[in-house]
Every structure is written in structure tokens, then in C-alpha cells.
Amino acid sequence: MDSMDAMLAQVQGFSATNDDLTHLHGLLTQNEEALREQGPRLSSLLTQLDPAKHSLGYLYVLDAYSSSSIPREQAEGFMLTASNFINSCSTEQIRIAPEKFTVLCRRLKEQAMQLQVPIQAIIPLRTAVRKLQPSPEHLTPLHPDLLLVCLLAKCYKAALSILEEDIFEIDIPKDFLLYCYYGGMIFIGLKRFNKALEFFQHAITAPAATLTAITVEAYKKFVLVSLIQTGQPYIDLANNYSSGKISVLEACVNTNTEKFKNDSNLGLVKQVLSSLYKRNIQRLTQTYLTLSLQDIASTVQLETAKQAELHVLQMIQDGEIFATINQKDGMVSFNEDPEQYKTCQMTEYIDTAIRRIMALSKKLTTVDEQISCDHSYLSKVGRERSRFEIDDFDTVPQKFTNM
After folding, report:
1. How far is CA 354 from the centre of its chain?
2. Any residues with CB less than 8 A from the CB of 307 and at least 6 apart, and which?
3. CA–CA separation, 135 and 121 (whole Å)
4. Which terminus of the chain, N or C, has less C-beta within 10 A?
5. Region label for 332, one of left (φ > 0), alpha (ψ between -120 and 50) or beta (otherwise)
6. Cα–Cα distance between 123 and 158 in angstroms, integer?
7. Which of 207, 152, 146 is nearest to 174 (CA)?
8. Which of 350, 172, 144 is nearest to 163 (CA)?
């Protein structure tokens, strides 16, 4: 019997029970090199396998088929085959070889990027993430890859279902750093700067033995987004921002344009510059009840009253200020927040937030209990304790000394 026929028979014959799959996994691992040597012949083998019933065998064969360089004219065919497999494969079977499945999915991502069609990898990778996850709280190696193709395709909302889940289980620290960095970039694209800050801060403060390039880039973005969101002062750009003077900030940006461009941050810097107009308009709401559009333009250094009107309208729409514009006389009236916190929608929002916080608190308690009973943690604490002198600790309270 030909080796290909033998492999086909083994895959078809050992894909039914857990014991069969364990045996098949061993056979496939032993014959990986032999599979790769078959090259183009493997395409015919794939047509004889059912990706849903023979997922483990199909995975190994497709991995071997795509292990060498894929010609450009065959790239689209490979992407279609890989996408169909990811969509129909058995979750239980691919979890037997998660590293192999991850490698295959990354090849799909790389081909989509080379063909400049990252959008075609979004749905397959999102499906792959769900199939690899033991639970929604688990970060898989494919999370960063999914976020990257969403970024490249500018399909930011496609990543929201993943980013809005709380992550508690992390296998590889680098995956978490990339997840936070790309996640922050996606929230910038969605103009949700508060969430972007949160993700960049996670990347900056994550425990690490050495400083990484990812952390450095996350810090640069954190500084810029902090200016947009809160106006807090940081370094030269931030110091000029806090002055509130557009001309001074523009001079700083022009001086450092090449540096910002090299760091791929020029677009974000321009948003910082634009946000200063909004920041200055917000300051006016703390001083005036009414003000003309012409006065607003002069105060915040806009060229015309029309530009001031457009800025004010956008801020009203985004909920950044509460105001009304009288079109007849060009006057702007600044109002108080109309929210009375008693509508059904607000009640539902608060109730959802409380439930989420309660669930998070319960999860943290569980994690704390697990760590408190962890042998490695207790051993480390025991070793650290010997480093301190007895005088470093408080004395025993008097009420316990006479017992």
C-alpha cells in the first residue's frame, strides 16, 4: 500500500473516539517529515478528508502542505481552504494540537497580509480564537493576530467582541503585551480614548524582567492619548499642551514632525493638536454662560466663527459639552448636564455596571484564594521572609502577651 494511502486510511480509521485520536496524534507526529516530503501530492489527500470529521488529520496534512513557500498564484486557494477548515473543524480535535492549529492560522494571516487583503482573515481568526479558548477569560496566542488584521483592515468594530471580555488566564506574556498594544490602537481608531488608555496602561505596567519594544511603543501612545483624553502634562509636547496656546503647540509639533513621523505617531499627534481646541472650549464653559461664536473663535485661536460652530456642534454630539446655538445671533448658551439619573436606560446601565463589578470581585476573590494555596507562591514567600529582621515587624500587642 502506498504511504499516502496508508496515511489516509489511518486518519479515516482513527478519528472516532478519544483513544483513537490520541493514537492518531502519535502517528501524525511521527510522520510529520514524511508528510512534508509529499509536497503537492497532499492537495489530493485533502480532498478525500472531511475537515469536520477528520479535523486532526486534516490539520496535519494542511500544515505540511503549507509549510513550504506558497506561490502567489496559489495563495488565494490556500486561504480559502484554510478558512473553510477553521470554520468547520472540530473544536475537540484541534485542541489536541493547539500549537499546530496556531501555526496554520498565522500562515493564513501572513498570506492575507502579503496579498494586502487583511479583511479576509478577520472572520477565520475570530472563529479560531473562539475554538482555541477554554473560556472567554483565556488569552490565546491568536488574540494579537486577530487584532492586527482588524487594525490593518481598519475594521475596528470587528474586534470589540474580543476586547470587551475580561482576560484572567495568560499563557505567554508577550501575547498579552501585543494584545494590550493592538487593543489600545483599535480603541484609538474608534475614538474611545479612555479604553485606549486602559489598554496601554496594562501594557506599561505588566510585570516583566526586561523592558521591551512593545512597552516603549505603548508608553508613547499612552502619553499622546493622555493629552487627548485628560490633558495631563507629559514631556515637551505635554508641557506645551498644558499652556493652552495653539501657536506654541503647533511650533512644538512642527519642530518634532520628523521624530513623530518615524515613530508612526504623527497622526495621533495631530489629534492631540485638534483636541486642544476642544479643551479650550471646555474651559470656556466653566467661566461663561453665553458667548458668541466669534468670541469663541478668537479665544481658542480658530480662524473663523464657522470653524468654532463646527467644533461646538461636534462636541455637543459627542456629549463633551452641553450647549445650544442660536443661529440668528450666533450666540452659544452653555448648559448643565441634563442627565437626572432616573431614566430606565440609565438604571439599566448602572445595574449592568454593578453586576459586572460584583462578578469581577468574585473572580478576584477566587484568584486570591488560588494564589494563597499555591505551593510555588508559599515557597517564595517563605524564602523572602528570612531576608527581614525581627525588628522590621510590629511587636505583639500587649493584650496577647499575658494569655
Report:
1. 24
2. 297
3. 22
4. C
5. beta
6. 9
7. 207
8. 144
The residue behind cell 506645551 is: 240
| Dist. CA 185–CA 151, nearest whole Å | 8
Amino acid sitting at position 294? Q
Cell representation of residue 17: 473516539
Residue 386 confidence (pLDDT): 53
Query: What is the predicted pLDDT for the residue at 255?
Result: 85
Rounded Cα distance, 234 and 266, in Å: 17
pLDDT averaged over consecutive 10-residue blocks of the chain (403 residues)? 75 85 90 81 86 93 88 89 95 94 96 95 96 93 96 95 91 92 96 93 88 91 83 65 83 85 85 87 89 91 90 89 89 85 84 89 84 75 55 44 42
Partner residues linked to 170 by β-bridges: 139
Instruction: Extract the C-alpha cell encoding 61.
Output: 496534512
Type of residue found at 336: E
Taking the C-alpha atoms of residue 256 and residue 259, their distance in angstroms, rounded to an integer, is 5
Rounded to whole angstroms, how far apart are CA atoms 207 and 220?
Answer: 18
Paired strand residues for 83 = none
